[in-house]
Write a structure and sequence with these properties.
Largest sheet: 5 strands, antiparallel
Oligomer: single chain
CATH architecture of the largest domain: 3-Layer(aba) Sandwich
CATH topology of the largest domain: Rossmann fold
Radius of gyration: 26 Å
CATH class of the largest domain: Alpha Beta
Number of domains: 3
Low-confidence stretches: none
Bound molecules: zinc ion
């Protein structure tokens, strides 16, 4: 498999450090709010990467952190802690805020069929390891303490900027950051922060009472969980390439004296009318809101219909198109199951291997999911034609199903069978029924539209309504 490496700016053949095994660290969300479709895009992309590595037979050790302290507002070096700001707004303890939004992320991931990481470390539970990591940095001369805070000395790490392609002189001249008199160099960044009185989350340390900076957690936790050595793959969003990932590299490589990770993968953003979907512009759709309107399989398909390094433009229309394509796949598989269960005999004329090879060639090329999906659509057209011509046997159908199952271990679609109408849909139908009886036709029509978007059709009958899958 070839994977684009941000560090070398080229596609490179993937070679694991230990044969058959892959260590993978993905920068997780800061858990102070519900995730939006920009996050869904990132974590579905990383899920596809993990699933394809598993498809190829690798045993993957997948780590994704939850940032629950130290990420300051606007990703700046100074200011309020995002978690604590939200805790104040919701009038609950910061740990309760983190717990609440971690639960929210887990719900979203489950709905989108994103495989959970093997470990989800949180800095508040890794304080001892973080402190000892900072101590190592000081001991090796890469960090220094001033007034209870500890800063990483960027000039001690000459390769600073190698990931994002920035050089330190440009950074200094372009920096609008106020000069912090505690720092020896304006580019130095905090690895440990002296806690002001009002900061709730704080711990004793050799430098006084404080809390960890945002970047240090990913270095300390990946070091602890991935063998205190170079690991295979680091994943993250484009927007975190600088300064977050650059700082991770500086910290980890200062300790390891070799690469932090061999492959740096970055996913691109979701745009809304030309602007990045995000918290700051307020133009985001949460995953939960999207799931109210769309089938989770359609959302997954919408995401992987673009390559993970391209921008996705969000629009209702593009999601509706994804839903149609998802239904097409769903219908195809149901149809295959019916043919497989039957007793259709015909000369064998389906070439599963050629589709499998095309699928693998697409995925091997830096996870080209749009191309891999086009192989599926091509297969659907081919098979449907043969079924219509009665030249597709039950044996062919069984083989095609086996191939589909393998492909879908990578796509991760949860297809719906014909039989069961979900409770959620039944409830919506009941709600619509009572709106209709109460002559609230606007509400009744809205609910019908919602039910249809979720893949079901309501038909009004004399004694109520009936429901079936689209
Ligand atoms: Zn990180």
């Amino acid at each position: 498999m070839n994977l684009y490496n941000t560090l070398s700016k080229t596609k490179e053949e993937f070679k694991p450090i230990n044969p058959g095994k892959v260590g993978m660290y993905v920068c997780g969300p800061t858990v102070y709010d519900h995730c939006h479709l920009g996050h869904a895009r990132g974590y579905v992309s990383m899920d596809i990467l993990r699933r394809y590595l598993e498809y190829l037979g690798f045993e993957v050790r997948h780590i994704m952190n939850y940032t629950d302290v130290g990420h300051l507002v606007n990703d700046e070096e100074e200011g309020e802690d995002k978690i604590e700001k939200r805790a104040k707004a919701e009038k609950i303890n910061p740990i309760a805020i983190a717990d609440k939004y971690i639960t929210s992320v887990e719900e979203d991931f489950t709905a989108l069929n994103i495989k959970p990481a093997h470990f989800n470390p949180r800095p508040t539970k890794y304080i001892a390891q973080i402190i000892s990591f900072v101590e190592m940095l000081i001991k090796k001369g890469y960090a220094y303490e001033t007034n209870g805070s500890v800063y990483f000395s960027v000039e001690k790490f000459p390769e600073y900027g190698k990931l994002s392609g920035r050089n330190t002189e440009d950074l200094i001249s372009g920096s609008r950051v106020e000069i912090n008199p505690e720092k020896r160099n304006p580019l130095d960044f905090a690895v440990w922060i002296n806690a002001p009185k009002e900061h709730i989350l704080k711990w004793e340390s050799p430098w006084g009472i404080g809390y960890p900076g945002w970047h240090i957690e990913c270095s300390a936790m990946s070091y602890d969980l991935l063998g205190q050595a170079t690991f295979d793959i680091h994943g993250g969003g484009n927007e975190n390439m600088f300064p977050h990932n650059e700082n991770e590299i500086a910290q980890s490589e200062a300790i390891l004296d070799k690469l932090m990770a061999n492959y740096w993968t970055h996913w691109n953003m979701v745009n809304v009318e030309g602007k990045k979907m995000g918290k700051s512009l307020g133009n985001f759709t949460t995953i939960k809101d999207a799931l109210e309107k769309y089938n989770p399989g359609a959302i997954r398909l919408w995401i992987i219909s673009s390559h993970y390094r391209s921008i996705i433009d969000y629009s209702e229309k593009s999601l509706e198109q994804a839903y149609k394509n998802f239904q097409k796949i769903n219908d195809f598989v149901l149809n295959l199951e019916a043919v497989a269960a039957g007793n259709v005999s015909a000369a064998e004329n389906f070439n599963a291997d050629s589709f499998r090879e095309k699928f693998e060639a697409a995925m091997d090329d830096d996870l080209n999911t749009p191309l891999a999906l086009s192989v599926v659509y091509e297969m659907i057209t081919d098979v449907n034609k043969k079924i219509a011509e009665n030249s597709f046997s039950s044996e062919d159908a069984k083989k095609t199903l086996a191939l589909w199952k393998k492909m879908n271990s990578v796509f991760g679609f949860v297809l719906s069978g014909q039989a069961e109408i979900p409770e959620e849909i039944k409830k919506l139908v009941q709600e619509r029924e009572s709106a209709r009886r109460g002559k609230d036709f606007k509400k009744s029509d809205d609910l019908r539209a919602l039910i249809e978007k979720k893949g079901y059709i309501v038909e009004d009958t004399k004694d109520g309504s009936s429901i079936k899958q689209k």
